[in-house]
Structure formats: C-alpha cells, structure tokens
Amino acid sequence: MRVAICALLTAFILIPGAILGLAAGGAVNQTLPGNPTDPIKFALTVLSAVAGMFVGGAVWGWSISRITKAAADRRMAVAGGIGFALSAIVVILPLGFLEDLFVEQHGGPQLPIHNVFTLLFTPGAAIIAGASGAALGFGMRDWAMAGRLAWMCAITGGCAFLVVNLTLDGLGWRVGGPDAAARATMLTTALLGNLAAAMAGGAVIGWFARGWSRSSVG
Fold first, then answer.
1. pTM of the complete model beyond 0.85
2. What percent of the chain has pLDDT over 90?
3. In this structure, are residues 23 and 52 in contact, taking their beta carbons and an 8 Å threshold?
C-alpha cells in the first residue's frame, strides 16, 4: 500500500508542480518588457519557474515523509523542493535549446523527430527522477540511501518514460508524425511519460521506505 501511495503522490504532486513552475516562468516572461534573451528578464523567468517547482517539490517531500513516517519532515520538504526544482530546471533549459537546434534549425544529426524526442526526453526524465529521489535521502542525512535512490529512481523513471513513449508510438501517436500538431502528440507523450516516470520513481521510494522512521531520527 505504501508503495502505491508514494507512487501516486509523486506523480500527482510533482507533475502539477512542474506545470506551476512553467506557468510562473511563462507569466513573468510575458509580463516583463524586452527580449526573452535579455539577461535580467531571463534570470527572473528562470527564478520564477524554480520557485514554482520548489513549492511542488517541498509539498511532495513533506507528504512522502508523512506517509513513510520518516522523522525528518522539514528537512525532506526542503530537500524535495531543492532537488526537484534544480534538477527540473537543469533538464528543461538544455532540452529547449537542443530541441530548437535539432528540430527547428535542423542542426546536428539528421534524425526523425520522434527519435530526437526519445533521445532527449528519456534521459531527462531519468535525471529528474534520480535527483529527486536522492534529495530525499539527503534530507534524511542518509548518504547511502541517497545513492541507492539516485540510481534506482533514475533507472526506473527513465525506463517508465521509454515504455510509454514507445507504446504511444506503436499506437500511432508518433511525435512529429502525421497530424502530430493537431493531436498534440509531443505534449501528450511528454505528459504521460513523465507521469509514468514519477510513479515509477515514487514506487521505488515507497519500497525503500521501510525503516525510515528509525534511520532518519536526528
């Protein structure tokens, strides 16, 4: 039961948290005058996005601590907020640049769009899952647990995203395929893939949560 609850909490807190951060950053970018590449405007946009994601990550970390009875509520909230927000923004910014380079400017290897999407977004999902899982271990001051959660959450999260991506592709929802824009295949695949990655990472956290109430005291 704890595994399922942690999986659901991770998916349905972190994904809205990411959306909140992106919405906050987008609002700042639209509100402030000037070119989006202006250093000050860009910095404020990124900070707004990070702040929104930090809120989502903090709520998630606190919720996981309550479900797992880990005696480190505040530390896990702060660690969850920092780990999720920083890893998400570190992934999102390069993804935007690389997507523009490969898809819009046709730079780099000449690969089909759906292959570019898979090669970029699957590692991105793995990085965020691994970093967020590790953050909870750091919040408990358990460095060994942080390491285990990092690689286990990264592997399961990345694999979950890849499975969803390939499944939708096989069902005809190919990114960059016919009617892709009308059906929003990229957005749909990214959303469902990241939901699956978050659930997989959350399940790993729930599985490893046995004994946290003892190990995290202090």
1. yes
2. 76
3. yes
pLDDT digits (tens, 9 = 90+) for 174-217: 998 888 888 899 999 999 999 999 999 999 999 988 766 544 44
What the block records as the tokens of 61 is: 């970390």
Distance of alpha carbon 92 from alpha carbon 44, whole angstroms: 16
